[in-house]
Amino acid sequence: MKNNSLISIKVLTFAALLSLSVVGCSNAQNSNAAVVTSTQAAAAQAAGSTASSGTTSSTEAATTTTTTSTDTTALFSDRDLEQTADLTAATQMKLVSNQDVTLSEEGVYVLSGDVDNVTVTVEAAEEAKVQIVLDGVSITNTDSPAIYVKAADKVFVTSTDSENHMEVTGSYVADGETHLDAVIFSRADVTLNGTGSLDIVSAQGNGISSKDDLKITGGVYTIQSSADALEANDAILINDGTITIDTGKDALHSENEEDTTLGNIYIEGGTLNIKAADDGITANNLVQIDGGIINIETAVEGIEGNTIIVNDGQITVYATDDGINATPKVNDNASIEVNGGTIKVSMGSGDTDAFDSNGNLYINGGVIDVEATSAFDADGTAELNGGTVTVNGEQITEITQSRGGGGGFRGGGGGMGH
Question: Are 42 and 58 in contact (CB under 8 A)?
Fold first, then answer.
């Protein structure tokens, strides 16, 4: 059952769960907090820095940079991370075309069969945990989800070492006041894991939608969608798995219109290959990347959020507007903070920025390679405090503000010029 008492944690106290490398330079300290999931306290939101404007070189700030991290394991339960289901008391179900299935009790259900026009509906008690095991399933529907979670505490969708396919070929029909819009549609927390594969095709909607949290901890996924591929109101959390996305809208989208501390994306592992007609990764509040391989082959905005924190990972972005963009979606403290990882950003031609912050921008570590007319653009403070930054083939040692327009903060110190 949901715990309505949402817990926030302050930067540098780290009383809870989400790993966050918090870097404080001589003039800047992060201060505000954000909740990553709806039920668990998670990372601090890097916002409201009090840094004075100006240029800081990596050599000047190196002695004042500190890094603190904490445990992230509580973001994912043991059952989230378990890639095989306990089938001791499982119910085996062979699906039949044109016969919907309703799961009303907590338990483990093993599904198989190649069918048309079947919706597996979970309508269980609010404290119930239901595990759907995909063991060679193919479901093709015209206007309804393949899996529809109407009620439960949490649902696990676990693939065996098998190939599975789910597709909706037409537009979705609403369920009363519930606007169904995805091949897997959940009104509860949902976790995808397993050792097999799942292909999802959504001709006129989202791939997977959760009105709470959406977690992926294992498995191989291929998602083709006309709208968002992965969408969640509260949080998208990725621990592992291989996810290939081709979408007509956003690849990962998290947004909560009622609670500004939610609408978060956290990635600590796995491999994401993304082709997006709009944004690659976008969250209304926090995007935090602590690991994994992220390859955004094409997007308008590569990574976008109110606050963006990169602590680790291998990230490659090609975008036609902004590569990594912090914009004030839920508060005025937009910021980008890079503490580690390997990041390569290549930009299309025109009025584009590799790193664009409508607030502050801190590069504290990592290896960054930029190919762009404008490497860095920030409305507030921009500081290069550490790491190795290369702009168009030349290593830079500071970020200086360009007053000429059309690019804001550009690489200085031997980079793109002043």
Answer: no
Cβ atoms 43, 74 nearer than 8 A:
no
Euclidean distance between CA atoms 54 and 405, whole angstroms: 17
Q: How many CA atoms lie within 13 A of 177 on its CB side?
A: 0
Give per-residue pLDDT as tens, 227-258.
Answer: 999 999 999 999 999 999 999 999 999 999 99
Question: In Å, how far are 4, 10, 62 from 327, measured between CA atoms?
Answer: 28, 21, 28
Residues whose CB is less than 8 angstroms from the CB of residue 47 and which lie 6 or more positions away in sequence, other chains included: 30, 31, 32, 34, 306, 307, 331, 333, 334, 335, 359
**pTM confidence score:** 0.85
Q: CB–CB of 220/197 below 8 Å?
A: yes
Over the stretch 349-376, which tens digit does the pLDDT of each residue have?
A: 988 999 999 999 999 999 999 999 999 9
Angstrom distance (rounded) from CA 317 to CA 273: 10
Tell me the C-alpha distance between 86 and 103, whole Å.
Answer: 18
Parallel/antiparallel/unpaired status of strands 394-396 and 388-391: antiparallel
Residues contacting residue 417 through CB under 8 Å, at least 6 positions apart: 410, 411
If one counts every other C-beta atom within 10 angstroms of the C-beta of residue 123, the result is 16
* Structural tokens at position 409: 């903060």
| CA gap 301, 367 in Å, rounded | 21
Which residue do the tokens 């309703």 mark? 102
Residues 34 and 22: their CA atoms lie apart, in Å, by 14
**For 263-281, what is each residue's pLDDT tens digit?**
999 999 999 999 999 999 9
Q: For residues 279-304, give the mean pLDDT.
A: 98
CA–CA separation, 154 vs 2, rounded Å? 10
Instruction: For residue 73, give the DSSP letter.
Output: G
